Amino acid sequence: MSKRVGKQTVKLESKPKIIATTSVVGPKEGKGPLKDYFDIILQDDLDGKESFEKAESSMMYKAIEETIKKANLNEQDINYLVAGDLLNQLSASNFAARDIDIPFIGLYGACSTMSESLSISSMIIDGGFADYAIAATSSHFSAAERQFRVPLEMGSQRTPTAQWTVTGSGAMLLAKEGNYPYTTHVTIGKIKDYGKTDTNDMGSAMAPAAVDTIKQHFQDTGRTPKYYDLIATGDLGQLGKKITQELLKEYGYDISNKYIDCGDEIFDKEKQKTNCGGSGCGCSAVVGCGYIYKNMMQGKLKRVLLVSTGALMSPTSSLQGESIPGIAHAVSIEFGGNQNE
Amino acid sequence: MSKRVGKQTVKLESKPKIIATTSVVGPKEGKGPLKDYFDIILQDDLDGKESFEKAESSMMYKAIEETIKKANLNEQDINYLVAGDLLNQLSASNFAARDIDIPFIGLYGACSTMSESLSISSMIIDGGFADYAIAATSSHFSAAERQFRVPLEMGSQRTPTAQWTVTGSGAMLLAKEGNYPYTTHVTIGKIKDYGKTDTNDMGSAMAPAAVDTIKQHFQDTGRTPKYYDLIATGDLGQLGKKITQELLKEYGYDISNKYIDCGDEIFDKEKQKTNCGGSGCGCSAVVGCGYIYKNMMQGKLKRVLLVSTGALMSPTSSLQGESIPGIAHAVSIEFGGNQNE
User: Fold this and answer.
1) Do A105 and B101 touch (CB under 8 A)?
2) Is the ipTM of this complex over 0.85?
3) Of residues A231, A212, A218, the one with CA closest to residue A325
4) Which of A50, A234, B137, B243 could lock onto B113 through a cystine, CB 3.0 to 4.6 A?
């Protein structure tokens, strides 16, 4: 009864269904190219709260509650909330979950958290441990800047390879039944560290992990890029995307005509001055819950590989001279194609 | 094929086996009352590394590698490493996992992480997603002090309710087969926050979560305290333990004659001057991997409920006036009793 496929992939026999999603974004994201796909756009990034951290937590709370409402369920129906975020000690998730009456599993995978929480939730449903589980994550530009870089008040200049942390939260509700997009395979990644130390160039640091996980997913499943309508990495940005695409080509996988990076898509990089693009847990969360999910529901995308990518350094580890370890997890999501293929 | 029992508990039909464990502790823990149960005792808490954070990461690496070796396996045999720690962005786990060739799932549950990682690993094995999975966690007194409280160099006085973060790491290797202690049920907890704000009294903040999870475990399984030889909470310390015991009595569950708290046991509180006792992810990890596992292997304990407990605040959330949310997850571990009961 092993569900293992190849070295690192598992097949979800029961195809857990993503029966509802919600994306909540900040004002900047709400003016970007994907604005029409988001459910809730905040008017300002404090959203009436006393701090950016509390605003982030409140965004996640909204994303979760709205998702439960969309599915006509109550908190009591949901067996697990599987969530994480970028704030130290998962503040955003913990304080959101405090006000929600659902057993809580906290995760940290930096910006890989959306596909990590979706992977764990999918396994929990497929394993028979839950009827309903919610996967959620969030990030907030202003909270991330002061935690990971410098407070905004300092007005630091951004380097050309810098990315802009997405202010946003996404939640996906998984269930055993329903005519909705479903997860079919999960490939949990290994940590890859090629010695990059520039914390203003996370895309390059995470690219090797994305390449490793995507390559492994193809090898394990016997699939090729042809199988998918869309392959979406999390937040490699313009530069990291380019590296990933080129490295995968060297391994014999040309994904160029169906490859997007959520961070590369969410902002108008020129007009919105986001340099290499968006980043943060919230990035692949809101693009996944918004653009990808809605296009799948409309039949415009049938087979998607979502590969959220995380840079696992901490400000302390960087100060202590460590390089930036990266990780990526891949989840195959399908809807409306040939289910028996 | 639902494995759900009651509201919050799942039954692990296949009884995942804990085939090996390793506990690594610092010198102070190595002089405490449980010293004979630990596998590796460090001579100094830097262990030859340049920083406390790197020493913590190295402890976890040792715990994991030693555990794999004990089971006569290789890294390549292990399907998942499920780990977390107290450091911001899970530095200890991430940098340990960077040097280990195993797909990595990062968790954050503050000091509840040992039973959280054991729960997830058990579900992953029971769900057929893995042949082998490792659950691990760590904490380090000196790293935790400067991250959560004040650097040791400041020589701050400790309050009577303060606890001493355990320097230690524990790893458990789970497998489908083998004549070893096995997990039978998992009860994932909800976040409970009764408004406590004193970060020098985490035991009181976490006690309501421990009470809620233990009570729910009994209600879901129909068990009573009589069922277990030992109920062990994670790191409530002397005061939190007292509160938990008394509150459970009010709910009709008298656990007093079989109840220990790992934090209450690991130090000689008088002689070692640890006030209310030990704390930290590493606390229930090393007591679980050391004292509890070894006593189960020797047949001295047959049925144990391990309930690691976490205080989910961050220094930032405390500065922003938030109270301390608590969480607790319970895992039932058995060996040598009547397996069909």
Assistant:
1) no
2) yes
3) A212
4) B137
